[in-house]
Amino acid sequence: MSTQVSNRRRRRARELGRVPGRCRVGQRLSAMILALGSFSSLLAGTADATEGGASLYLPGFHGPGAALVPPPGVYLENDFYMYSGELKGGRRIQIGGAVLADVEVEARADFLTATWITPLQILGGQVGFGVSVPFGVPRVSSGILIEAPPLGRPFAFSQRDASFVLGDPITTALVGWHAGNFHWSISGSVNVPAGGYQEGELSNLAFNRWIGDVSAALTWLDPELGLDISGTVGFEINGENPATDYASGNAFHADLAITKNITKEFSVGLQAGYYDQVSEDGGRGNRIGPFKGRVAAVGATAGYTFTVAGTPVTTRIKVLREVDVENRPQGTIGLFTVAFPLGGHAHPTPPAAIMAKY
């Protein structure tokens, strides 16, 4: 009976933490706005690795122009995130204290980011700060509920949860430099457990734990060729969720993006992301064992910039497929980004930063 239910209702799963990801501060502000670079990667999902399969890092958030820092000013960015995936093969995942199997997830969430690039410089590098707030509807369903901790006994029927939720705010600080066609930056982000975490619920965007992420990015951008090659590496440090006593492991992540401007406004390219958990999950509340997750995602991206009432607007779409997955759901990631500076025109950027990011 449980098998029938399982085959019939493998749905959307996971705390969508995978959408927390973003340690990001307006990371894709385009070439015309002068691209903020991927300083954040809010979300990332994993399963059987990190609680609820949720990670601050998300494949795809670090992209073209990852190390580009715009001139002083305030910038707004909105990222609409979509994820569709499933956990097969009888593997288990723990969400909100419950142990589940035969899980599917359909995530739809927005990440609103405000970034302030200050006039302040450190060792010749431009300093900036940002804050991101996620909100949306993660739809999680499971064919089998194996264990419900509050009751302490096994079950064999499907579970489903979908509700509008507010995620944890993410704060970011960054410093960026440039020399000719080369641009590089360092950043640090902190997930603050102050969102609308719902204890015992399957549908959550908030992690309810402190998470830190440090990263370094390098961009080579040739404005004459319209070619952008950007890479980012980072390390994520996870705290423990006090509501579930689940301690998620730490992880290394990396991204690579190569894009080419077809016209001044339009660019296309390829990108990939890699996430590897280097320490095992633990804690008194861990009921599924010392798992570690890994995933590689590959895909394509296209960007377009235009002007509205004198304000440059950047748009970008990304689609990545998760491959080489271990101990986590496998699915498809979609991102649609709109970014622009407040107050109209951004000040001119260094020549190399103008043509290629988006």
Helical amount: under 10%
C-alpha-based Rg, rounded: 20 Å
Average residue pLDDT:
77
| Reported CATH architecture | Beta Barrel
Major sheet: order of its strands? 4-5-6-9-10-11-12-15-16-17-18-19
Largest sheet: 12 strands, antiparallel, barrel
* CATH fold-type name: Porin
Number of helices: 1
**How many β-strands, per DSSP?**
19
Class by SSE composition:
mainly beta
Going by CATH, the homologous superfamily would be: monomeric porin ompg
State the order of secondary-structure elements, H for helix, E for strand. Answer: HEEEEEEEEEEEEEEEEEEE
The geometry reads as globular
CATH class descriptor name: Mainly Beta
Q: Report low-confidence residues grouped into runs of 5 or more.
A: 1-48, 150-158, 347-358
What gap, in angstroms, lies between the N and C termini? 52 Å
Sheet-strand content, in percent, reads over 45%
Q: Any idea how many domains?
A: 1
Question: Can you describe this structure?
Answer:
With 358 residues, the protein is mainly β. The chain has a single domain, classed as monomeric porin ompg (Porin). 2% of the residues lie in helices and 56% in strands. It is built from one helix and 19 strands. It has one helix at 2-8, and strands at residues 21-22, 42-45, 54-55, 73-95, 98-122, 125-147, 159-162, 165-166, 170-179, 182-191, 211-222, 227-238, 240-241, 246-247, 251-261, 266-277, 294-308, 311-326, 330-341. The chain has a twelve-stranded antiparallel beta barrel. Strands 1-2-3 form a three-stranded antiparallel β-sheet, with no helix packed on it. Strands 13-14 form a two-stranded antiparallel sheet. A hairpin with a 2-residue loop joins strand 4 and strand 5. Mean pLDDT is 77; it is low at 1-48, 150-158 and 347-358.
